[in-house]
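Priority: low. Protein: Sugar ABC transporter permease. Input follows.
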Amino acid sequence: MKKSLRPSGLEPVLFHSFNTVFMICLVLVTLYPFINTIAVSFNAGNDTIRGGIYLWPRVWTTQNYKAIFASGTIYDAFWISVARTVISTILNIFLTTMLAYTLSRKDYVFRKPITIIFVLTMYFSAGLIPNYFLIKDLNLLGSFWVYIFPTMISAFNMIVIRTYIGTIPESLLESARIDGAGDFKIFMRVVLPLCKPVLATIALFVAVGAWNSWFDAFIYTSSKQSLSTLQYELMKLLSSTMNSNSNPNVAAGVGMDRDSAKAMVTPLSIRAAITIVASVPILVVYPFMQKYFVVGLNVGSVKE
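Result:
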């Protein structure tokens, strides 16, 4: 008699049980650093120095967040960061996609030389000092647009989007041309809608980069408080906290009563609170873009 190749009833149960346990462990390992950061951000600063904070604060306090929002400049910096992130993301996506579509056309004469020029910028950079003088010559120092103009085109994003556009069936574009659509109308009505998955991915990368950037604010707009970004303000707060807690006796909370010790912030506790404040907006946006990461809207639209 031939043995049946069907798995016994016990094997699927064991497999699914092992798979479930493994995935739960993987989720816990992935989430633990973030949960630990939240716990540290809500824990008293002097108690955090002792260590041993894992999933829950040992001495609960909101002083770390009060220290962050105590300055009125943090709110203005937040809106500057929001405006910078939104405008940079929209312009970068639109202009980079337009460039990628142009360079994806095989009938474009200057397709190869322009592509080579953009690729070279990924490998060679003039450096900080020439960039500073370029920004100065463009009269962008101390201007909000210094956050926008240098980030409107990305060579790497252009290559990624151009590669994705190459997967769009050419018959779709030819059908639009037969119907009388020009290149710009094809770009707006056909290419952009079909590129939503890759554009959502690139948009998240651009938004995270713009949101987390602080060095350009330090270099180009540090003389204007009204143009300070959230990340730059948080960096200054962290630096001032580290300087004020440089005394080891103060950092350990020696001689303080319980209320004073809970009100004290330390570099470790304030860093955790800053991490949460800076990451929450991106975490709110991410779920709305996740669905576009894998699924392409052009799948099954045309069969060649």
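Residues 200 and 288 are 9 Å apart (CA to CA). The two ends are 48 Å apart (CA to CA).
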